[in-house]
Amino acid sequence: MRINLRFRNFIFVILAVLLVNIVSKAEKPQNVTVENAIGILSNIQVLDVRTPQEFSKGHIEGAINIDVNDEAFAKKVAELETGKTYLVHCAANLENGRATKAMSQMKALGFLNLKNLEGGYIAWVKSGRKVVK
Prior knowledge:
CATH superfamily: Rhodanese-like domain
CATH class: Alpha Beta
Structural class: alpha/beta
Distance between the termini: 70 Å
Number of domains: 1
Oligomer: single chain
Number of strands: 5
Strand content: 5-15%
Low-confidence stretches: none
Radius of gyration: 19 Å
Helix content: 40-55%
CATH topology: Oxidized Rhodanese, domain 1
């Protein structure tokens, strides 16, 4: 009977640790305005999750492009360093849009340092910031 109690306690602890891990990963990424993004660009990697066609028409300097709607998105993202900080954006970063979808998939792959560019690429352009074409 004592062994069963120990086993039950062990299982309880494991489940508690897993639950804490799931809850911590479920936290929403930090929203970053264009102005605030300027101050951290040297310490992060910009990840543009728009289509290659959108990316070729203009993108933030230094951004890498991985289309969230590409079948190979998870495979391509898995090749990135999970410990880096990523500023993720799509065109407008609407709630439940492409950037949200991308960050959700990235969190599931173990990426914990994700930032959401408020307003996406459109906000970047409207602010008059430099873009690469």
